[in-house]
Write a structure and sequence with these properties.
This is YdhG-like domain-containing protein. The chain is an alpha+beta fold. 29% of the residues lie in helices and 24% in strands.
Length: 130
């Protein structure tokens, strides 16, 4: 079930971004049905066993879908984001969302995980969980 705070986040967006956010949250929540979801650092994020795996955020010119371990997915459409293992896909219209790709990436987010939950304890060092 989608956290009401995520629904509120989606509804606060401009119309075209709202459609993107609604579709992303619906698909992510369906595919990661056992994940906890909440607003984390002001953005919708899904967690498996306390570890962030997928989420999205509104940027100035797009909605960014983020997979915390996405650089390990070996997916050409996902672009490197940040200095750890995250990868992203950006959307400017709901028609750009390929549900088959998204489902595959979400399956990989379940099966390929780096331990972000304990990154502070490990002083910035990531270890692979799965």
């Amino acid at each position: 079930m989608i956290n009401p705070d995520i629904t509120d986040y989606n509804e606060m967006q401009a119309e075209s971004d709202r459609e993107i956010c609604r579709l992303l949250s619906t698909i992510i929540d369906r595919e990661l049905d056992d994940a906890e979801n909440k607003i984390w650092h002001r953005h919708p994020v899904w967690f498996l066993e306390g570890n962030p795996v997928a989420g999205y955020s509104k940027l100035k010119d797009s909605v960014r879908l983020l997979f915390w371990s996405g650089q390990s997915f070996d997916e050409e459409e996902l672009k490197v984001e940040g200095t750890f293992k995250a990868a992203e896909k950006r959307y400017t219209s709901v028609q750009e969302i390929n549900e088959d790709n998204l489902k595959r990436w979400l399956e990989k987010s379940r099966n390929i995980q780096w331990d972000y939950k304990n990154i502070v304890k490990r002083k910035g060092q990531l270890i692979r969980l799965k």
